[in-house]
Amino acid sequence: MAQPDNLLALRDLEARARALASQRYAEGLIDADALERRLERILDATSEAQLAAAVVDLLPPGLPVEDFIAPRTSQALARVAPERQRLLTAFSATRREGRWAPARETTLVSVFGEVELDYGEALLPPGPTRVELQVSASSLRVFVPEDVAVRVDASVILSSLRVDPSIRREPELGGPMLVFGGHIVFSSFTVQKSKHC
Q1: In terms of domains, do 98 and 132 share one?
Q2: DSSP letter, residue 56
Q3: CB 182 within 8 A of CB 132
Q4: What is the pTM of this model?
Q5: Going residue by residue through the chain (197 aa), what tens digit of pLDDT does each one get?
Q6: How many CA atoms lie within 13 A of 102 on its CB side?
Q7: Whether 95 and 178 share a structural domain
């Protein structure tokens, strides 16, 4: 008996397929009717093969269907990355760097702490990776590689926020994106390009 498709991988593939169809519509490659038909096929799909069939002719030239279905980083992440994680720093320092696998959703709590997250060599999955911030009287520095988009939705109260303007705000098709939410109080938050770029 064949093994069913992994539901998390199927969810990620569906998001990438919808994004691809929407991008090709925005580029004028397909019209509104074709977009609607494709989105219906994508939403009705129950397997990776059905999702891939809905967008196979929209893939960039030279990209194998297998790489669209299961990007190499996603395969590695499926084995090692937790879905949720909590990091706590109180009156101390926390650093994540090198090759590591961030959770899809992280809650970061820091009180009188120093936190450094370097995503330069991190195994980030396609789509959003969310970091919920509960930061008070702390310093938070985040380093990202060139291919990772960043969005900061956090409330900043009596704090400083600096995001390097050269960092992309929108992900490439199927690319990773870091989304920071929550709140930052009496703290500094800096996002800059990784030392490994």
Answers
A1: yes
A2: G
A3: yes
A4: 0.64
A5: 445 667 777 887 888 888 888 888 888 889 999 999 999 999 999 988 898 899 889 887 776 777 677 665 544 554 556 788 999 999 999 999 988 889 999 999 999 999 999 999 888 888 899 999 999 999 999 999 988 999 999 999 999 999 999 999 988 877 899 999 999 999 999 999 987 65
A6: 31
A7: yes
Gyration radius of the chain over CA positions: 19
Does any domain span residue 75?
no
Looking up tokens 């195994």 gives 123
Q: Which residue range forms the structural domain that includes residue 118?
A: 80-193
Which residue, 52, 70, 88, sits at the end of a domain?
70
Letter for the amino acid at 78?
A: A
Q: Is residue 51 part of a domain?
A: yes
Residues present in the chain in total = 197
Interatomic CA distance for residues 38 and 93, integer angstroms: 49
Nearest to 183 by CA among 133, 110, 140: 133
Contact between residue 112 and residue 90 where contact means Cβ atoms under 8 Å apart = yes
Domain count, the chain: 2
What does DSSP say about strands 155-157 and 176-185: parallel, antiparallel, or unpaired?
A: parallel
